[in-house]
Design a protein that fits this description.
- The structure is a single chain.
- The chain contains six helices and no strands.
- By secondary structure, the protein is mostly helical.
- The chain has one domain.
- The protein starts with a helix and ends in an 8-residue tail after the last helix.
Length: 188
């Protein structure tokens, strides 16, 4: 792990770009495979290459966003606007996660959808409601754990959470599609 920490600390922008480029794309491909139950790419190879770059750019956006949100949360704490139990440890991680997902999350999701629409040459915001809801049920708890870690691990874990969410959503979509086709009983 020391190599990883040294790499992230010495090349924060490059490492954010690469981690998101690789893991974000992996999550997207995994979700597509789960939904379609076939080993295939979600788009043409050229589009996939551009998606890797788009995920990398998103990694840079997240890196800058995390830095700004941490400073914002610290300033709000210093001003005395947050309860004392949120100034350290898991409480602090929760405060940063809440701020990140409330102030930064929706804009980042719309930016990413815009990137995807441009790459896929379509104009669709289908599924954005679920994406925004995931800020509450997935991203706030996930990033609470993320911000509880040392800074060197935060961007990598954030990218890894994207893979996890890709599997969750892919599995949910696959299960829903199976139920719609009458191939499996609905679970209450």
């Amino acid at each position: 792990m020391s190599f990883y920490v040294e790499w992230v600390m010495s090349s924060p922008m490059l490492s954010a770009f690469i981690q998101f480029g690789v893991l974000g794309t992996l999550g997207e491909v995994a979700s597509h495979v789960l939904v379609n139950r076939r080993w295939e790419l979600p788009c043409a190879k050229g589009q996939l290459a551009i998606k890797i770059l788009a995920w990398g750019v998103l990694g840079l956006v997240v890196k800058f966003g995390f830095t700004g949100i941490k400073d914002f949360t610290h300033a709000v704490q210093e001003a005395g606007y947050l309860p004392s139990f949120i100034t350290t440890g898991l409480g602090h991680a929760f405060a940063v996660s809440l701020a990140a997902n409330f102030f930064f999350g929706p804009q980042m999701m719309f930016f990413h959808r815009l990137e995807d629409n441009l790459i896929m040459r379509q104009w669709s915001f289908k599924g954005m409601g679920l994406a925004l809801k995931s800020l509450l049920w997935f991203w706030i708890p996930a990033h609470t754990l993320t911000f509880a870690l040392p800074p060197a691990y935060q961007i990598g874990l954030a990218a890894l959470w994207g893979v996890v969410l890709g599997f969750i959503l892919g599995f949910a979509k696959s299960k829903a599609a199976t139920q719609e086709m009458g191939l499996a009983p609905a679970v209450s």
